[in-house]
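> forwarded from #structure-qc
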């Protein structure tokens, strides 16, 4: 009896989460096709920003979606004049993506729980400039990121601005990616380094 109740509650909750997730995406002018969302993401697309999601997108939000230790919602922040593109058959869990320039995620990419992807420094590296909010915003560096098709990004990894991750590349959990990763290679560490070629 208890198992049956839990199953019914799960089915009903999932149904309403799917509807609410689509309302959020529509409300932020996100272009999407078939999506599956376990939980509710946080989405903020500035006027002039662009966010599109390909077919068969799967996303886990929060503890219920993927209980691996960082129970946050997926977060998508797209600044004005920035572009975030997610390809077909992409799966993510509890990911934070902040796009101030351009982030492209290719087809069949899998991104593990708690991964952070930032194409901006957020602040100037000059402490004098950081003391003035407007000057700080105007002098931060933004550089595009591309994660090419079939890449796999391990949980809790951070990907920084200007990085290209090649096709079929694998990034080990908890890595810091500040440089390009060639196709068909496994990288891991902080900072990440080549482990082996596939």
């Amino acid at each position: 009896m208890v198992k049956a109740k839990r199953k019914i509650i799960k089915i009903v909750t999932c149904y309403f989460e799917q509807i609410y997730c689509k309302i959020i995406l529509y409300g932020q002018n996100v272009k999407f096709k078939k999506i599956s969302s376990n939980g509710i993401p946080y989405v903020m697309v500035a006027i002039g920003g662009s966010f599109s999601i390909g077919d068969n997108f799967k996303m886990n939000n929060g503890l219920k979606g993927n209980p691996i230790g960082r129970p946050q919602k997926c977060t998508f922040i797209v600044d004005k004049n920035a572009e975030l593109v997610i390809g077909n058959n992409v799966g993510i869990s509890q990911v934070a993506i902040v796009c101030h320039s351009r982030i492209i995620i290719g087809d069949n990419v899998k991104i593990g729980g708690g991964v952070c992807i930032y194409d901006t420094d957020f602040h100037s590296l000059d402490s004098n400039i950081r003391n003035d909010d407007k000057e700080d915003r105007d002098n931060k560096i933004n550089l595009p990121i591309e994660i090419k098709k079939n890449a796999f990004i391990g949980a809790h990894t951070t990907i920084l601005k200007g990085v290209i991750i090649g096709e079929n590349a694998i990034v080990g959990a908890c890595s810091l990616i500040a440089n390009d990763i060639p196709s068909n290679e496994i990288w891991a560490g902080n900072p990440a380094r080549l482990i082996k070629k596939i």
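QC bot note: The chain has four helices and 19 strands. The radius of gyration is 18 Å.
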